[in-house]
Amino acid sequence: MTAIESEIGKNRSTGPSVQDLLVADSRQVPLSLTDHSYVSQGKADVPKLRYTSHEFAALENEYMWTRTWQMACTLDELAQPGDHVVYDVADQSLIVTRTKDGSIKAFHNSCLHRGTKLRVEDGRVASFRCPFHGWRWDLNGELAEIPAQWDFPQVLHESDTDLPQALVAVWCGFVFVNLDPEAMPFEKVADKLIEHFGRDFDMENRYKAFHAVKEVPANWKVCMEAFAEGYHVIATHPQILEFAGDTNSEYSIWADSPFVTRFINGFGIQSPHLGDLSEQQVADAYLAFSARSARGSVEVPDGSSAREVVAEIFRSVMGPIYGKDLSNVSDSEMLDAHLYHLFPAFAPWAGVGQSLTYRWRPGPTPDTCYMDVLRMMPVPDGQERPAPAPIQRLKLEQSWKEAEGMTGLADVFEQDMANLPKVQLGLKITAKNAKKGVSFGLYQEARMRLIHRHIDQCIIDGLNADHRDVSELTPFITPPG
User: Fold this and answer.
1) Cys bridge to 246: 108, 194, 230, 320, which one at CB 3.0-4.6 A?
2) What distance lies between CA 189 and its chain's CA centroid?
3) Residues of the chain with CATH 3.90.380
């Protein structure tokens, strides 16, 4: 074993770790935040073709997107019987609806006559009627009408006339679907997510206050990976270096829950890339940037930290906005970015200060994808649950700034968006003497390697089940070392 192999993933940045920050917190921190783990994912490069190849995208579409749990909508969007959301992913489509008895079902969005999509928009209906010939199914997916049914005796007497269904799971106000009838139960796949949020983060009592989806000029993995690490801050978001511990971020991979990972970026501390700043300088920079404070400056007393001072300001500002008493909420929950990830493409933030949830899906080509941004706000104490915000759909040429209600977050997102088409184009440089792979960091980007291995396993399992040659995957496979 070489010296490098024996040290894979053991190196860390200078400066306080996330666990150091939790120990110094002015409040008791949730137990879930102290539950951290790292499992080495090796050092081998990941082939560029995984991001650019139509063949690999087709394998993902056939064997990964049809076998994994994906967030389709929020439960609030299915408030009444007949309410439904059309969930499209790759070349699949589902109608996710509430039935008359209150249960949630997900039907394949395809007429059993000639395949027409039954619904192309979200809404509320009494039944699902094909716009082509008028075949109709009730909210339970049972066939209710065939015009000129005398001409279809084989349908009525020799075949199953119910709409085929996908699996459904409901967690913390989100509705998940899985097209594989033999899929591993959601509760097992998402066990660490369920454990942490169920114990420490009240996601159940949140509502969708904002939702925008944008087509992005990059592969879905390129886009997702841009939001999975703090390593890019120094070059992409230099304006936050004075109050963001970018390379001190913590990345958790749990051996007993391999489909859930987590990234924590500490705020209210300076980046290790900068020379020493005073606590006052850190606080001033943070408050000048943040939309959560009307104050441009506040004194940091001797012996206090920028984190505890800024966290207290955020409690005083956000408490009335949320309609919540935040006096006992930890500094970390008020300040830090706690971004969980459920394979393949669902990422909810924990904590109080951050309320975002992300989702990614493939686009019509390997060079495009769709990214959803949701803001899940706490329901104010003593008030009725607000109605979910409508979806704002942004085209490829539009900016996140055009999404009403995204506020200052749009500026940060646009910095990320500026990188993505450059990444996608650079990945296509595969000339004879060009580098053929992507070199992920051993710690900061280890979660990405794990996600790629999960994708491989989905495809390998699917190829084996269909008695296809697994060597089809060889040019794209993520090396084990």
Assistant:
1) 230
2) 15
3) 3-42+187-267+327-427
- Tell me the per-residue pLDDT of 217-264, one tens digit each, with 9 for 90 and over: 999 999 999 999 999 999 999 999 999 999 999 999 999 999 999 999
Q: What is the mean pLDDT of the chain?
A: 94
In Å, how far are 111, 403, 472 from 119, measured between CA atoms? Answer: 10, 25, 35
Residue 435 phi, psi dihedral angles, 5° rounding = -70, 135
Contact (Cβ atoms closer than 8 angstroms) between residue 121 and residue 131: no
Q: Check residue 89 and give its pLDDT.
A: 98
d(CA 72, CA 176): 5
Q: Assign 393 to helix, strand or coil.
A: strand
- The pair phi, psi for residue 106, each rounded to 5°, is -130, 110
CB 271 within 8 A of CB 242: yes
Q: Is the pLDDT of residue 439 over 90?
A: yes
Q: Residue with structure tokens 């394998």?
A: 59
* β-strand pairing of 104-108 with 136-137: unpaired
pLDDT of 4 reads 47
**Inter-residue contact 342 to 190 (CB < 8 Å):** yes
R_g (Cα) of the chain, nearest Å: 24
Burial class (CB in 10 A: 0-12, 13-18, 19+), 151: exposed
* Residue that is written with structure tokens 């137990």 in the block: 31
Looking from the CA of 207 toward its CB, the CA atoms found within 13 Å total 17
Is 438 in a helix, a strand, or coil? strand
Question: What secondary structure does DSSP assign to 395-416, as a single string?
Answer: -TT--GGGSTT-TTHHHHHHHH
Q: Domain 3-42+187-267+327-427 adopts which CATH fold?
A: Naphthalene 1,2-dioxygenase Alpha Subunit; Chain A, domain 1 (3.90.380)
